[in-house]
């Protein structure tokens, strides 16, 4: 067979381009990291630099001196992510399975019920009213979990997967053998569809972990700040640090020396941390999951 | 709950002519047979009723002048006044223009770059390296918009930002007040969006390219087709369905925008509104910061209705192109 590979020269050019692209993707994070370990006085004089001449871990020391704020935010984020992911995968699969069953005559109605929500919604205001006035979830941790429990896209992916990977004959055979619907679902359908459960689980984990919007509109209680929201507060309110600092320190002289800029960036890094650690595992399965849906196309 | 509802419907049908009642009977039997399936649907149905269908009744807020004393139902009707106010100001035009134009730029830019990168990745001889590059370029997709706003801030901060202190200082340029200069953001926002989203597009298109049967390329090679010719006449035509579907669906969502991108990375700076305010951020600001419920609801409804027809229309086109890919 003739050689259809690109020339050596083109190959090198492509590698150079990709190395530049990869660096571009990581550079902003490197900058934030470098700022977080730069000496504060150096920043005041020279601004943020990639290669600062004077390093300092003061920002991290400051954050961990009173780690309860960060720890609490981590706790909220972990609780919301784990609970939310488990419950939402469960509810989504319970919804997707019946509408994947061709012998269930009313699957069309229930499919419409969920897919119509992709087309039309009441908008932010009525939705906000329902959560605050009807469900009374303002300043409740459930306000961070409930709004993202069911997504039509996830249900669509699961439904398609069930239809592709679980032959109707198998479900029929299981019923003939006397297994109830629930047993069929948990012992036949679930093991055969593990990849889609893992995929939706990953999607939801990322979604819950990265959410700040629900905190922004429902949460004012500082005990319920998630990590993302804490970070948002630190960047959006210039005075947040000083106010929070004042609470902790109670001393004006200490406050004046507060390395605000570096603390902010250190906080961002503490927020990115778990994503970076989970990334090697995450992206591999994420890519698999994304291509799961495109087998059909 | 649902079974009970259906049951009462079936009972009501008893007085109807015989053929109707047997039909109801069959329906009842079918539902009873599948009562466990209905039970499985129950949590999801409850969620949809509360999270999606109940708020749909709330669109009446857009036609009312809400005050907290009378509540939602008791507040006076004002007809189309909220809409009249909304469209009387230049706000409606600005947020519509911004939303549509940004989305348009995002769609084109991300498509062209993601497809190009995917094709190039596929050509690399070292497959391990290709995988590595792909992983790195996918990384920004995993960051929340709050984190992205920090990264942007590190570059654009007026006092200490790297652009002002590192680059502009080096070339002796004047420092810029990035967060109060609207004219630069039509370039900054597409860049951020591209940086964050290109890896995702790459994954989708690369999967499609890998799926192409190698025989096409072998045949082309025998005919003496160059790499360029192969890309133009085999790769692109064969991944065209994926491109068309993704693009049409994106066009369906052209009235909705990435709230986080426009709210977080701009630090919701009012000075930037002329070029950064989109429908979603307008609705949010009107509700939370201005407390103008009627106006906010009106803008939200305007978005919902136009969005409805856009999604419906784009889905209709998808159906024409490839029936299997249509969502509805």
Automatic annotation (TrEMBL), chain A:
Lipid bilayer topology: Multi-pass membrane protein
Keywords assigned: Cell membrane, Membrane, Transmembrane, Transmembrane helix, Transport
Subcellular location as annotated: Cell membrane
Domain spans labelled ABC transmembrane type-1: 74-282
Positions of transmembrane segments: 12-37, 74-97, 109-129, 141-162, 182-203, 263-282
SUPFAM superfamilies named among the record's database cross-references: MetI-like
Keyword Lipid biosynthesis attached: no
Protein name: ABC transporter permease subunit
Species this protein is from: Paenibacillus phytohabitans
